[in-house]
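The instructor's notes for this session suggest beginning with a concrete chain rather than abstract definitions. Hand out the sequence below and ask the class to guess, before any prediction is shown, which regions might be ordered.
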Amino acid sequence: MSESTSAAPAPPVLPSRTVPSWGLVAVALAVVYVVWGSTYLGIRIVVEEADPLTAMGQRYTFAGLILGAVLAVRSGISRLAITGKQLIGCAVLGLLLPLLGNGMVSVAESKGATSGFTALLIAMTPLAIVVFRMIEHDRPRTMTLVGVLAGFGGLAGLVLFGRGGAEPVPLGPALLVLFAATCWALGSYLQPRLWLPRDPFVIAVYEMLLGGLIMTVVGLSAGQELTLDYSSRTLLALGYLVVFGSVLAFTAYVWLVANAPISLVATYAYVNPVVAVLLGWLVLGETITWPTVVGGSVVVAAVAIVISSERR
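After discussion, reveal the predicted structure:
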């Protein structure tokens, strides 16, 4: 038999992925650092006048509608298609994250928890996720366990000794913030196990929309008022939470996850509390005590240890 002279087919040419500039990554990271860190301040300003649950219900409902409209305009209404099971999954996230997570934070801040102190307690979220993993018999690295133990030690110090100052934070709101952080961690841990749309932006639309509606109903059932008859200061803070805190910062975060090293993106978890403490001190004159500095530093350092260990 004669040897074939036909050439082998050339392999398909795959489109090259555009690598984003570090300048664009830095801008998106700065948005996540500063804007998410500033949301605790925004919440504190809003709840000085507004009822916490109905106000945050409005925040998430408006944010879901805005993000949904943007997606529909850019990609067509079909992008928002969702099945019944996926809708249930998004409702579970809406219950755990916006309502029991952010909603309870707003209630705690309305009852005396300062924005900086709240942010330091919320920093426990990555530590709680490790605990949920351990319950499911997923053994973390040794350094991860060291970070978790140190972090919970710092949290104990914050709750027991870091609530002082000119206006001490009551124990009840402090414990409520810890409950909110635990619910947020549980929602984050369960998310990969739920029936959800594949598009993270579509998940965000329904999570915020359903969470906002549930929060509004719960607030109304508790006798809270649903209104936009607020002062210009409160409306400005609420608008900031809707546009910047929910729509812009989340979009920047999702883009970063797809375009930057996850170890870099995860640093927001220990930068946000620092930003929140500084903004609370600068804008609202919140007192920063030495126990708060020491306990908060231990928590932030522990989260850094956990993230550094887990990224390997």
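Then share the key points. Residues 2 and 249 are 66 Å apart (CA to CA). Residues 24-310 form one domain.
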